[in-house]
Amino acid sequence: MTSDDYGIREREALTERYPGLDVLVSDPANAQTASRTNLASHLTPREEHYIRTHHRTPDIDADGWTISLTGLVEHETDLSMSELRCEFPTESVVHMMECSGNSRRYFDPDAEGDQWGDGAVGNAVWTGTSVSAVLDEYGAATDGGLWLSAMGGEAPPDKDVFCRSIPMAKVVDDCLLAYEMNGTPMSAEHGFPVRLIVPGWFGNNSVKWVEEIRVMETMVNGEEWTDRNGRDYTQYQQSSYRITPAQDNEPTRHESVDVFSTYDQLTEAVEEVENAYLFDQLVKSLIIAPADDSTLPVSAVELAGIAWSGEERVERIEISTDGGGSWDDAEFVGPDLGPYAPTKFRYVWEPEPGEHTLCSRATDEAGRTQPATLSKPEQELRGIENDQYPWNQKGYGNNAYLPHAITVEVTE
Fold this sequence. Notes:
Layout: H1 3-17, E1 21-26, E2 29-33, E3 51-52, E4 66-71, E5 77-80, H2 81-86, E6 90-98, E7 121-130, H3 131-137, E8 147-152, E9 163-167, H4 168-174, E10 176-181, E11 184-185, E12 195-197, E13 210-216, H5 235-239, H6 262-266, E14 284-289, E15 295-297, E16 301-308, E17 314-320, E18 328-329, E19 331-333, E20 343-349, E21 354-364, E22 373-374, E23 388-389, E24 406-411
Parallel strand pairs: 4-13, 15-24, 22-23
Antiparallel strand pairs: 1-2, 2-3, 4-5, 6-7, 7-10, 8-9, 8-13, 10-11, 10-12, 14-16, 16-20, 17-18, 17-21, 19-20, 21-24
């Protein structure tokens, strides 16, 4: 079988298993929800929840899978899935997880990587074991300045290992080693048998197929993080998932940072961390009804949408029907599913005939608001300035509201 034949077969199989997804690449599997309307439900079914992978999806026997706990611990151990499920309390969290490359296609010129639209996001109930409980059981150090590095077990011998370092303060607060998604064991593409869940943070931090967790004084960094096969453990922490302007060849590496807010790194802390790390999610919103390019009658129209953020809840939603020229407040609707769940909103609009550009703008409890536009590479922005989100080489973090606007035609 040729690689082309394999790719075609994988795409067909992926489409059959996930009929609500638009498959960008099948080998490795990368797919986004096919329509904004798929985000209208309170929970995103797994068939419509985006998939992001760097290597081929592994076929794992859960009965033989273990998670190694190493580093600054009194008792290193290999934890089986049975022990994880049965010997620790079970916890759940509702988390609106967004791929850090979501909305990459709106950058001009194109940024590197798969051209995600705005569907690399989904809301699910993740169930598993508190990482804090595991660390406590085996005498791990949990001081505030430490880090926990999680390593995925999917990388082949000739590929870099997917590894992310999470600050210990976040780990002990609410991170999970999850084995269920929406009440049933998660699928292989979503991380079966176990993945790290970092609530409110970009999906690149929620490592799938977790094979090892290591308590450390620093983030993964340095030549010692290359194994005997030449696989690098630092790539996805120190080089990828950083805001890198066009003029930078390689982002500055740090052993540790004190500012964990992505937004703060993109604003007030730019001098300290020139190339922001993609940690917690940025405040963002989408209008999901009516659909883009709709034709509407001259009568009252209900606009519906969804908003989410990172460590802070969404506090305010504004709607503009003239491309950002003027704004009016929308109202929140639906149940409160927790601090990391999305917020639904509605707005009743009585339009005049003509073409209208509709956009939404969210603000969180910390006063962080979506910027308006995207900068150009030649501006060499490293952070959010003058209501512009910075163009960056990998197209990460785009939460500007104008690129996500929709256009409708109102007729008599």
